[in-house]
Amino acid sequence: MPHKSAGSPLPVQSSAKAARARRLLTRGQLPREDSDDELGFEDHPWQWMYEENEYPPSGGNSTGDGDQMEDDTSAPASRRRSKPLRLTSESYDQKIIGAKMGSFECKIGDCVLLKAEGEGNRAWVGIICEFGEDENDEMSAHVMWFSSEQEIRNKHKKRSDFLPNELYITPSWDWNPLASINGKAVIMSSTTFYARYPSGKIPRRSKEYGKTFICRRGCNTRTATYTEEFIWEDIFHDAEEDVTALIDRLKSDTKATRKRRTEAKTTDEDGFHDDDIGEEPTTPRKRQKTSIISTPRKPRTPSKLVTPGHKRVIVKKPLEFTPLGTRVLDPDHVYSSPFQTARSNLHVSAVPTTLPCREDEFASVYAHLEAAILDGTGACIYISGTPGTGKTATVREVVAQLNASVMEDELDDFIFVEINGLKVTDPHQSYSLLWEALKGDRVSPSHALDLLEREFNHPTPRRVPCVVLMDELDQLVTKNQSVMYNFFNWPGLRHSKLIVLAVANTMDLPERTLSNKISSRLVGLTRITFPGYTHEQLMKIIQSRLEGVPGNIVDPDAVQFASRKVAAVSGDARRALDICRRAVELAEADALESEAIPGTPSKSAAKVGKDSQLLKAGKVTIATVKRAINEATTNPLQQYLRGLSLSSKLLLAALLARTRRTGITESVLGEVLDEARRMAKMDTGNNMVEFLLKDELSAKAKSMQFAARHSSKAPRVIAMGSSVIDLMEAGVISLEARRADRTGKIRLSIGEEDVKLAFKDDPEIKNLGF
Ligand SMILES: Nc1ncnc2c1ncn2[C@@H]1O[C@H](COP(=O)(O)OP(=O)(O)OP(=O)(O)O)[C@@H](O)[C@H]1O
Fold it and tell me: Where does the chain hold its CATH 3.40.50.300 domain(s)?
């Protein structure tokens, strides 16, 4: 029967017994039979060992919180939290110095093996720095980890001189239940190790097998910085005092993330001050107790991957692309005139060096993200704002800056993955993408879901935080809400360290798409709203992109005019940039036409100073901007598209969404209709649903007519039948002639850009991805 640790509500696995029969893999990757039983055959309860009257009785509340440890950073590691998280009531004046289970004892400063649960039984090695109990009265030890070479993620900083059985001592800690302790480990210098085992191998039958390791360096695994080589026996003797010295050594010799930690704590809501923190090593800021240790993040043998239901997971090989030959463009050719430079800078795909007018939003996203990475906690940040308000650009910039901090060794490493609702063919693929980002394995969405569930529900020491940007979230809504629910739910799981940045166009997407019960759980969701840009802001944005373009080819009045026009409708920077870019194109064409410079401007033309003539003829003025706006809005196709019925617009929107999702221009009619219904349902003004219901009746007659013309089968397209016919007859879409049912193939016969342009500012439809 599984025993319980003293006071622990959690059943502790019948560890000692079960582990004995199992094969264990040690951190040194050496499989072993756990033949010797340090923890004994009997399942005794764990008990504290006290050192009496070490500390005077505390007059205050003895129940500390997780941050208390950080408070007293000058104290030795084992005493930094001046008392354990919670002392048992009868022991207020006693300090816990160790724990025992039957005849097995461990004390502060002991090197221990901790067993892993879950994917195979692996053992971890750590030094006990402190004992305590958590809010569930679970008896736990604060363990400073050793790490194997495989865990160093930065391939460039991996050492090539590591030895078999070598471990690095790391400045990273976790709380673990005593039940996960699986015996003592022996750490030694390489000299001692080779003196004892000249072949470098420990005989399998030896009691030391799988428990004995070499340590000659410390390493911050996240920044991959190493200490100088040391002799283990000179610096550590399994004693409590040595723990402090070891931490000091790691602190000074591995470049940890002190700078930013300190900064972050300055603004910490718990009221920490820099002075309190000092030069504390990278101890976790909040107590993160793990209940059961599970396996580390390591590349695994594909054949061993199984789901929690023990189904085998087929791991697909990563896709390998053969790069195409690269054509190197001559910068002189590309940017041979100011017009070309301006066009290129104003292009929406250009990555601006700064994001003016998004300083507050940037700071807010940055602070939340950095805090979550530093704390090692999960977080879910919901970012909303109408199209073109810089949501994606800001998030990417924040991630780039955080990444720069990682490179500078100022921040812990993190994984970043971007999942774009428009780029996945099916929302469930998000699971596969996330799993691939975490582990590097490509698996099917259903297997990925199983694996993610298990991953986030089990603690893994030193799990690297993962930041997921879920862009175009609206597109990831599934019928049963599962994808969105999971991505909102996982960050809240204690061990996930998952940070989700959900980006959508509407503020209330979670409320609208998740059931009341689920959305009510999102009260704590951090929400950041990106307002539409004002005309002043749009002006700044455009001007900043024109900085450095020679010749002042764009009149400031023209910029102001374009900005005002756009701000009045949408505050969409993308639209403002598009208009200005088109205006530059028009001005450039004017310049060429006026034959200021005959023919295409050539390299030499640009170089011999003929630009000035060209510029005189082609400056972007208010009139040019007006032409750009008119041109975009007045051609016959645009007018036709704008005058379409709502259901036709919706159908086109759905066709576009499908095309973007699949990357294939041809879609199945039934899927497009489903998409259209889904979009209609999500539309903020529910009038769209009502409209479609009304439209359905008149549509029915038309689609009957259509079916009679094109198919002998009864029409299945009822809701949008009329739209399909209208658009087909107008040459906007093409539909496989003989397939009037849902399996017919449909495709756009006009440019996608035309549709986008027509619907961009359409109040009825613009929220559906334009
Ligand atoms: N403050 C800014 N400074 C410079 N360029 C900006 C700024 N805000 C947005 N842009 C530019 O506008 C374009 C649209 O921005 P972005 O894609 O970030 O918007 P979004 O809010 O994510 O839009 P959507 O909801 O349509 O995805 C990009 O080219 C981006 O570089």
Answer: 358-529
- What topology does CATH give the domain 645-759? Arc Repressor Mutant, subunit A (1.10.10)
The model's pLDDT over 310-324, given as tens digits with 9 standing for 90+, comes to 555 455 555 566 666
Atom of ligand 1 nearest to the CA of 471: 27
Q: What is the ipTM of this complex?
A: 0.98
Helix (H, G, I), strand (E, B) or coil at 719: coil
Helices 429-439 and 482-489, packing angle to 10 deg: 30
CB 210 within 8 A of CB 26: yes
Give burial (CB, 10 Å; 0-12/13-18/19+) of 322: exposed
Residue 214, strand partner residues: 166, 188
By the 10 Å C-beta count (0-12 exposed, 13-18 middle, 19+ buried), 750 is classed as middle
The half-sphere exposure of 518 on its side-chain side, counting CA atoms within 13 A, is 17
Q: Ligand 1: does its nearest atom lie under 6 Å from the Cβ of 532?
A: no
Query: What does DSSP assign to residue 206?
Result: S
Say if ligand 1 is within 6 A of residue 403 CB: no
**Where exactly does CATH 1.10.10.10 map onto the chain?**
645-759
Q: Which CATH superfamily is domain 15-277 in?
A: Bromo adjacent homology (BAH) domain (2.30.30.490)
Ligand 1 centroid, distance to 726 Cα (angstroms): 35
Q: What CATH number does the domain located at 358-529 have? A: 3.40.50.300
Give the closest residue (by CA) to ligand 1 atom 14: 388
Nearest-atom number in ligand 1 for the CA of 347 is: 29
Across the beta sheet with 666-668, the strand order is 666-668, 745-748, 733-735
CA–CA separation, 629 and 618 (whole Å): 17
Cα 357–420–436 angle (5° rounding)?
Answer: 125
Number of other CB atoms surrounding residue 66 within 10 Å: 19
| CA–CA dist 365, 588 (Å, integer) | 40
Q: How far is the CA of 388 from the centre of ligand 1 (A)?
A: 5
Q: For residues 696 and 25, what is the distance between their CA atoms, to the nearest angstrom?
A: 64
Give the residue with greater pLDDT, 188 vs 25.
Answer: 188
Return residue ranges of the chain for CATH 1.10.8. 535-634
**Other C-beta atoms lying within 10 Å of the C-beta of residue 440:** 12
> Ligand 1, closest atom to CA 385?
21
Q: Residue 121 region, left (φ>0) first, then alpha (ψ -120 to 50), else beta?
A: beta
The H or E element spanning position 624 is helix 622-634
Query: What pLDDT, on the 0 to 100 scale, is given for residue 210?
Result: 85
Give the pLDDT confidence score for residue 208 in this predicted structure.
Answer: 85
Every domain range in the chain assigned CATH 2.30.30.490: 15-277
Closest Cα partner for 591 from 338, 375, 409, 406? 338
Look up residue 283 and give its amino acid: T
pLDDT of 362 above 90: yes
Q: Give me ligand 1 centre to Cα 574, in Å.
A: 6
The whole-angstrom separation of Cα 182 and Cα 464 is 24
* Most informative mutation of 537, 574, 759 for ligand 1 (most atoms within 8 A of CB): 574
Distance 422 CA to ligand 1 centre (A): 16
CATH of domain 535-634: 1.10.8
| Cβ 388 under 6 angstroms from ligand 1 | yes
Classify 118 in phi/psi space as left (phi over 0), alpha (psi -120 to 50) or beta. left
Helix (H, G, I), strand (E, B) or coil at 723: helix
Tell me if 355 CB under 6 Å of ligand 1.
Answer: yes
First to last CA, the chain: 61
Does 548 or 67 have the greater pLDDT score?
548
Specify the residue with its C-alpha closest to ligand 1, atom 1.
355
Q: Distance (Å, rounded) from C-alpha 348 to C-alpha 574?
A: 6
Q: Tell me, using a 6 A CB cutoff, whether residue 387 lines ligand 1.
A: yes
Q: How far, in Å, CA of 538 to CA of 543, rounded?
A: 8
Cα 368 to Cα 398: distance, rounded to the nearest angstrom? 10
Length of the chain: 770
